[in-house]
């Protein structure tokens, strides 16, 4: 057995530690408990969002399992912001910011209380990378427990997700949907607990964490309301206690090869563009070299195997029924696309955890395609560069009838101004919409642009209009859209210099994002450009704007290199 390196001994042993013991007795410690590992449970339960309303039960079950396995659980809360509720409002500025708040909070509690291990829970999008950033920073034995996916809603024979409601607004604005049907979609899109039901950001990140070995096999696509989810929380607690005794730590697991596995799975399942931003940030915290060019390198060799919403047909519960993430991973492993010797939280290698998974999915289904007949031969998250994005930008190219478009720019300095223009019918086929000053610094907070992109889709312009932004996109976004443009407008990036009518070229096949304006003209515009005054000079948004880095490096707030 590995030597006992438990940190809780700092506060629970020795005669001079009696005040510490006295405080712990007040929260339930008995004489025998001071020799047990202290295990933090970061409980992300809230009634703010359906993503998190089921997490309290998971935390309770994990707490019971920690006690039964010989540990002393200490439960503390973490925050959440509902992206779906704040989408299209000023509140969305706080979404990405909350990732850093969550990471800082978990680090503060676990290190401040000298805990020996941490079981982190999460449901909505930023709970998940926030928790993983903290685990990587602290390097204390830890495991992530996902709150689970929502089951689909139903209306007039269609399976619905939250994106259906946003697209319905665009359809209604374009006169293609009645008031009655708009209300019908809204009332039925989200039937209960769980995170957004397609391969949106939450389900993408849960799949990535499973691929990295930081969550239990099969846990990433379980439904929030199914019994197997609560039992997975209990088993996660047991595995964490084993990891504490073995001194098995996150950075033993989160290696460069593990990040490559995560990116590979994200490509294969057709995951969210946000995965790029979050995996870069987690790698930074794990002290692993990963950059945006690695994303493109992996994209070129990994096929898209899963026909999942938003650009595909099926929801995550259907994917889970066909074998879910483990099934896809086994296929990728057999094809030589995964590092099977990577360690997982259980102590097994990735290949060992997949040993009992069938080599192929069921034959009578279309959700997971065979390797010989992928949905797309290459991954769907393309990294574009050019004079508009010398540090890079990210495009999601699945479900597109064409992967290149060139047209006149229509520039907006906020999401709201752009959405008003779309709903007023001012955007025409062939236009390239530019939304800027919505980056990490400029927004601040790098808002997701689901409202404008869904309105474009709803208006029937998804295949004929391009959109670029220094902001982000929801995991529910699809269409000819390019986000994470870096450098951002607030930092003097070229996106700040675009004028209405300028020709912009988006070519995902050639990985090109280009502003067709003479360089001399651009230099003149650059000389005239002045940085805008910060939108916030106090509070959390003011602090964030002053410390956040480029999206091309994960938009982290502690990159002091």
In spatial order, strands of the major sheet run 7-8-12-11-10-9-13-14
Residue-averaged pLDDT: 94
Please tally the β strands and state the result: 14
| Integer count of domains | 3
Helix residue percentage: 25-40%
Main sheet makeup: 8 strands, mixed
Helix/strand-derived class?
alpha/beta
**Number of helices in the DSSP assignment:** 21
Mass-distribution shape = globular
**Termini Cα gap:** 38 Å
Query: What portion of residues belong to β-strands?
Result: 5-15%
- The poorly predicted ranges are none
- As a whole number of angstroms, the C-alpha radius of gyration is 23 Å
Topology:
Blueprint (H helix, E strand, L loop, with lengths): L8 H4 L5 H9 L11 E6 L11 H14 L3 E6 L5 H4 L6 H20 L4 E6 L4 H12 L3 E5 L6 E3 L2 E3 L1 H12 L5 H10 L12 H12 L14 H20 L3 H4 L2 H14 L4 H13 L5 H8 L16 H6 L2 H11 L15 H4 L27 E6 L2 E8 L7 E9 L2 H9 L8 E4 L14 H9 L7 E4 L11 E6 L16 E5 L4 E4 L3 H10 L10 H9 L14
Parallel strand pairs: 1-2, 1-3, 3-4, 9-10, 10-11, 11-12
Antiparallel strand pairs: 5-6, 7-8, 8-12, 9-13, 13-14
Helix pairs in contact: 3-10, 5-6, 6-13, 7-8, 7-19, 9-12, 12-13, 12-14, 12-16, 18-19
């Amino acid at each position: 057995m590995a030597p006992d390196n438990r940190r809780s001994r700092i506060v629970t042993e020795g005669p001079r530690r009696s005040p510490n013991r006295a405080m712990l007795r007040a929260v339930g410690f008995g004489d025998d408990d001071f020799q047990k590992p202290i295990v933090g449970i970061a409980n992300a339960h809230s009634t703010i969002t359906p993503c998190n309303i089921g997490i309290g039960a998971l935390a309770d079950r994990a707490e019971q399992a920690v006690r039964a396995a010989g540990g002393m659980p200490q439960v503390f809360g973490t925050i959440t912001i509902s992206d779906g509720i704040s989408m299209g409002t000023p509140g969305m500025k706080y979404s990405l910011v909350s990732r850093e708040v969550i990471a800082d909070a978990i680090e503060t509690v676990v290190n401040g209380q000298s805990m020996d291990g941490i079981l982190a829970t999460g449901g909505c999008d930023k709970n998940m990378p926030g928790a993983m950033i903290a685990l990587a920073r602290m390097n204390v034995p830890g495991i992530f427990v996902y709150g689970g996916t929502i089951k689909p809603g139903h209306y007039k024979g269609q399976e619905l997700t939250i994106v259906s409601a946003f697209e319905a607004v665009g359809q209604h604005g374009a006169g293609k949907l009645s008031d009655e049907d708009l209300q019908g979609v809204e009332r039925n899109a989200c039937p209960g607990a769980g995170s957004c039901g397609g391969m949106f950001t939450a389900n993408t990140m849960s799949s990535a964490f499973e691929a990295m070995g930081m969550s239990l096999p099969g846990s990433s696509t379980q439904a929030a309301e199914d019994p197997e989810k609560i039992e997975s929380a209990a088993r996660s607690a047991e595995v964490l206690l084993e990891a504490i005794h073995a001194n098995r730590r996150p950075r033993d697991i989160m290696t460069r090869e593990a990040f490559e596995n995560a990116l590979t799975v994200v490509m294969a399942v057709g995951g969210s563009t946000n995965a790029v931003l979050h995996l870069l940030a987690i790698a930074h915290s794990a002290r692993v070299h990963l950059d945006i060019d690695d994303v493109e390198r992996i994209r070129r060799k990994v096929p898209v195997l899963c026909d999942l919403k938003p650009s595909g047909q099926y929801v995550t519960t259907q994917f889970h029924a066909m074998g879910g993430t483990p099934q896809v991973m086994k296929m990728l492993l057999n094809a030589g696309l995964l590092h099977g010797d990577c360690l997982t939280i259980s102590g097994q290698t990735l290949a060992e955890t997949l040993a009992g998974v069938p080599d192929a999915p069921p034959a009578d289904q279309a959700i997971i395609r065979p390797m010989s007949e992928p949905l797309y031969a290459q991954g769907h998250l393309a990294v574009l560069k050019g004079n508009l994005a010398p540090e890079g930008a990210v495009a999601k190219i699945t479900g597109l009838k064409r992967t290149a478009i060139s047209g006149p720019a229509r520039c907006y300095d906020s999401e709201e101004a752009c959405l008003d223009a779309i709903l007023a019918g001012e955007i025409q086929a062939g236009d390239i919409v530019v939304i800027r000053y919505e980056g990490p610094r400029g927004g601040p907070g790098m808002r997701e642009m689901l409202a404008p992109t869904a309105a474009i889709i709803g208006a029937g312009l998804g295949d004929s209009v391009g959109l670029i932004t220094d902001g982000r996109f929801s995991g529910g976004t699809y269409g000819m859209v390019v986000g994470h443009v870096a450098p951002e407008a607030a930092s003097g990036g070229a996106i700040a210099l675009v004028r209405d009518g300028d020709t912009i070229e988006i070519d995902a096949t050639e990985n090109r994002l280009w502003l067709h304006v003479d360089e001399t003209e651009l230099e003149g515009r650059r000389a005239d450009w002045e940085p805008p005054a910060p939108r916030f000079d106090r509070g959390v948004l003011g602090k964030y704007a002053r410390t956040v880095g480029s999206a091309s490096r994960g938009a982290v707030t502690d990159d002091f290199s």
